[in-house]
Amino acid sequence: MKEDPRLIATRQAALDAAQKILMEEGVLHVTHGAVSKATGISRSTLYRHWPDARSLRDAAFRRIATPPNIPSKTDGPLRSDLRWLLAVLMGALNDTPWGQIAPQVVAAASTDEEARLVITEFMKDRFASVEAVFAAAVGRGEITADVPVDQLIELAVAAPYFRKLIRHEALDEDWLDQHVDLLCSIAKTNSGQ
Amino acid sequence: MKEDPRLIATRQAALDAAQKILMEEGVLHVTHGAVSKATGISRSTLYRHWPDARSLRDAAFRRIATPPNIPSKTDGPLRSDLRWLLAVLMGALNDTPWGQIAPQVVAAASTDEEARLVITEFMKDRFASVEAVFAAAVGRGEITADVPVDQLIELAVAAPYFRKLIRHEALDEDWLDQHVDLLCSIAKTNSGQ
DNA sequence: TCTATTATGCAACAAATTGTTCTATAGGAG
DNA sequence: CTCCTATAGAACAATTTGTTGCATAATAGA
């Protein structure tokens, strides 16, 4: 027996609105009342789906933080793979809801176990994709295995997040070029000593 | 004419409590009512000081994010100066309220101009102190001027923030050693080409 | 010390928000 | 067509938020 389409429609519409509110006004304004006004869905229905404010907010977090699958490119050379992958991650920060919602998740994670899980899983996913790129480069012999890969991965991902979430600086092509250049130069000069 | 000590005492006690609530329970719980209950100060007095919830929260942000003066050490060598300075910044993230409050400020900054100012000014300060270390190294001739200093500064600061705020990983001495090593190796290998 | 000023505490209050419950209705399943 | 169930809407209590007036206590200035 299939799920009632009304349930699905209500959940979807409500979380769309909750997500929008979360991005534009912050977690403070994600309430049953606000979502009701934004969607036309009655408050009582919303309470039936999410019994309290916290569960509504968690649902909004969870929905938006679901990591989209990152297509992988590991055929080398390193600079090319890395630039391509980081462009995808950068694009996600610049142009998808994730970029706008991430700050709220970061904050929630400091007091909320659920949000912490969301963000650490998300990051694990990001790290894995960068790791694959370096592993492939090692496999091709382009860099040697004694490169401090873990540190490089962290720097590779940390920089765009820091720039965007904390400094509110632009993430553009020029910046990305410099960033990739530096990462590659570290990988190469630390390689095979 | 001096300011009435009662004003000062009330502000201080209230913001102490607001800050504590902000750290432990998140921005959602910083309200006049909660602060009143925590301090014994009457709600009406709090409203007289901060007319609405927003101004109360902003005040709490502003108070905790005020950058403590960072003592500078730039007498070299680079590795030593850098390690010393980053240890201070790391300590601030680990052991002061700033480390716990920063996530909330990051989130607020995405929808609140005031919070954005707070954090960008704070970071400007941090960056300046790291810059001084590199500038001194250049001045001593330890590294040359063509090192991509701006990128290095960003990586130097981004890494600990990313680790703490986003990944919730430990910031310990071992990690710091590795981090400083890598930064120095970048600076040296890019130097004097 | 005496007086005028002003911050606080308290209580009462209005307004808005939050959460609950009931009933009628409309949409979907079989 | 009939049964089931999700929703809308209204009524409601409880809590929170913000305001106001007044008595009290602390402070500043003479």
Task: Name the shape of chain A in a single word.
Answer: elongated
Output the radius of gyration of chain A.
Answer: 20 Å
Largest interface: A-B, 40 and 40 residues
> How many DSSP helices of chain A?
9
Beta-strand portion of chain A reads under 5%
Terminal CA distance of chain A reads 63 Å
Report low-confidence residues of chain A grouped into runs of 5 or more. none
CATH superfamily of the largest domain in chain A: Tetracycline Repressor, domain 2
How is the biggest beta sheet of chain A arranged? none
Explain what you see.
The structure is a homodimer of 193-residue chains. Chain A is an all-alpha fold and 193 residues long. Chain A has two domains: 60 residues, Arc Repressor Mutant, subunit A; 112 residues, Tetracycline Repressor, domain 2 (Orthogonal Bundle), CATH 1.10.357.10. Chain A is built from nine helices and no strands. The first copy, chain A, is elongated, with a radius of gyration of 20 Å. The N and C termini of chain A lie far apart (63 Å). At the A-B interface, helix 6, helix 7, helix 8 and helix 9 of A face helix 6, helix 7, helix 8 and helix 9 of B. The structure holds a DNA duplex (30 and 30 nucleotides).
